[in-house]
Amino acid sequence: MLRTPSRLHLVCLCLLFSLTGVAQEPRVNLFISCNLDCAWNIDGDQRGILKKGEEARVEVLLGLHKLEAYSSAGKLYESTLEVVEPAEERISIDLTADPATALKEFINKPSKPSLPPTQSVPEVPTFQAESRQVLVGASVWMRGKENPSPDIRSPKDLRNLSQDALIDLIGRYPAAALGLTSKDFRVLDNSVEQKINYFKKDDFAGQNLIQRWHFHPGVRGTWGFFSLNSFLIPGSFYLIGYVPPSLQPGECHAIQVTVEGRDVGLYRDHFCKGDALVPVDPTTADGADVGKAMRDFANSTAAGNFKVWLNAFAFWSRGTLSFGSKSQEIPHEPTSDFKYVITVRDKKSPATVRVASEFYLADKFLDAKAWDCAGKHPLSIHVLGFVYKSSGELAQEFADSMICGANLTEPEKKVISGAFKNAPVGWDKKLLQEGLAKRFDTEIELPVGDYNIRVVVSDGRKNFGKASMPLRVQAFDADKLALSDLVLSSTFGDPSDILRLASYVLPGPLIPKPLVSKGLEYIPAADPEVKKHRKAILYFEIYESLLANQAPSVGFTIRVTDLKTDEVVVSTPLADASLWIIAGNPVIPIALELATDKLKKGSYKLEVQASDSAEQETDWKEATLKVE
Prior knowledge:
Number of helices: 5
Number of domains: 3
Radius of gyration: 25 Å
Helix content: under 10%
Oligomer: single chain
Mean pLDDT: 75
């Protein structure tokens, strides 16, 4: 039995995400569903993205629990649940569209700002950053035991893969070791045992991964993989943290994690002092075979076989991941209290430019007989970028390489290798596509000026592709109201996943900085084209220095112009930004769902302007929007 005194309202959310421990000895299964795509949590524990029409299961103890869910339009569902009987319960969360969403009302902007007082919002807590903090992700398996047959409710969703074939594939995986605590683990740093100061576990059931992005960060950027038709193997993921001794510049340490009587797979086995990192991957460096071939292609007129999309955005903010403690000391006991904070950069600093690239290599160019994702000849993807000043002078390079299957643990590699050998006709290329990176995001620092960015993609053999675009980094004054560039997105990430992603790189930074607003992370689209039937999100940041010690009113206006007719087809009234303000933080991260279904097919200029009660007004920022 369940009592739910629930309410639906708008609130201003702080960009701080606390992760709490998992309840022990669960007694009741709750099945949660949303009528819209939503990010949800229970008792402060972020549970991820729940798709419309899907159902998630969570185990809780008897007693009171707080359930929250956020839609992309900014709605918050908040409910206090009292679980009084040990029986399964189903909860349907009703999230309706935000009536203030941009592009819903086609009326003109008032000539003068007239804003209501800023609403009361939570303050940004102080925190102590630990620059040496290391996080490592681990999977643990039972030795000599195989997974039982999975519970597949909708095998037809896996399309061409039969239920029997899927069960056979999953059955080759060893069974996951569930329910471990921090006391079960030993962490060794360069063979010296370390004290665990952070611990979190996540047990997950098998599930279909149909048309979903997942990401793999590295020291030079983050790679994206798109699953058309995959299955998440049931198991358990452990996130473990410790603080190693101080490292010297250029020094690297080996990581080892053990559990008695169990097999442990790590998502990385070493880390290096940040000063040792170089912006260009050695494989793509000038003089290396792959690097030379990519540079030759960049300067040629050839189109290549890869289809490449490219976009770049300038921001004046940075993200920080830290313990939420006010203490100068690192916690003595394992904690799960990490927070993610966005802060504004100094006005003398260069802009942070996020570069987003997507690429695709058609099946006909894949040599499945020569390559696989876990054997002796894995397929690699290389990205090489050039940033040129308006004079034609090379300002910067950036590059990285991803080996297909590099993010697989050893047991997974064994299963995948077997799958390649025994794959039905045509499935070898499907498996390659699943393991092949489809996008690369990085960030660079650039001073004010005009630039041209060129990106080259290669498999290191005979396939290449490229794209280029102009970029203007405008002047920024941290003492005045300002805007970032405009980002279009149709892909959501889970902010609670930031810690898992950080486990690939800490104590190094997570590159690029996640774009987070009101409970969701937004992944920039490399292609400005938007389908009328698909959801499109506009993300941008307002920088208001007065928020550091005052409470000014801040607002913004959106304008859309048809590029073919030069007609202004949308001009919104001044919208109140207080919903997104975090007290004491000059960065206001705003994400709005665009009503692209109200626009005809064609190309548009999307513009945003911000203003405040101190009579400050920014210039219009613009981006191109293509509706198909």
